[in-house]
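dumping these here so i dont lose them again. two proteins, back to back, each one seq then structure tokens. dont judge the mess
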Amino acid sequence: MRDVMHLEQLEQAEALFKPQRIEVLRRLAEPHTCGEVAEQLGQTPQRVYYHVKRLVEARLVTQVDERKVRGVHEGIYQATARSYWLSPRLVGRIGGLRRTQDELSLGYLLDLMEEVQTDIAALDRTAPELPSIGVSGEIRVPPDRRREFFQDLRSTLQDLFERYGGSEGDAFKLAVACYPKGDQDHD
């Protein structure tokens, strides 16, 4: 089972539109038969099988085993991933135009986060070592020093890009997001 599955196909997203199906998917975090899930949810095995079949078609659930019970073959199913990320590309953005030219726009930040989400979902989590770092913090910048702060940040990052931007060694993606906190007072 993967940690994260990045959903980029509409059919996969549509498979999750039914609340009952999401509940079935949750129950399949561990391998279960449709009968076992039906018992947990107080539903008929046929109803659960209908949802499981749709989830299998969308590649959100896989059959991991099979057992024979009273002459009938019964599938054992498990969710493909522990969590699922829905690509913003499936929904799109109101207004349509991507604002990748304006690094200070929230549209650019959304594009950047989508790119990071896609890159992370594509990583091979079975690799013995995934060298990575995540840093998060909060800083406070007076309104009259915002321009100076953004210039310092850009200069620091540009220095890193120049010092480590050669063609040899392992390639790493560096993405920095700076955005206003939602709970602050706006001037």
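---- next one ----
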Amino acid sequence: MAKILKIYPQNPQENLIDEAVKVLQNGGVIIYPSDTIYTIGCDIYNHKAMERLAQIKGIKLDKQKFSIICNDLSHLSEFTKPIETSTFRFLKTHLPGAFTFILEANRNLPTAYKGHKTVGIRVPDHIIPQMIVEKLGHPIVSTSIHDDDEILEYSTDPELIAEKYDKLVDLVIDSGYGDNVASTIVDLTSGEPEIIRQGKGIL
């Protein structure tokens, strides 16, 4: 059964953030809030956890397109090819924010990303994932929680999310109701921003 932690962005308790980080360090899969929707994630460097995440999504690991969640832009050089100054300035203007930016990947990505020429980078404007990544010391990965409802595309109620994923994940962070609009996906691989999916973020 998944443990539920109530952590609110107005006053996130460090000991609870530490508990979430410990779950990730032990190879756990967690559900956590962001500045858009609730997402499922794990430690980017734990291959078994990545396999579990892919299994939950019902896809093969080599076909995944999990976003990398950073707490700032300092991790970019770890996973992406060198980017132009103008592109970096563009990123700094829009992050943290409700965007997923597609950039050219380098060869330092973990094995779960083997063969991927691009990678999606997110820096959510939300204190909880920022604190988790900062305390973990490196990024986590993220994938959306879709709803079975025909009208609502994404699940917003953390209690219902916890009920649905109770036996699939190790921890659910309840931060109150989430949004129902995902991030805006922007491809920057050509040097010029190209919107792939319009979401919450407005360029």
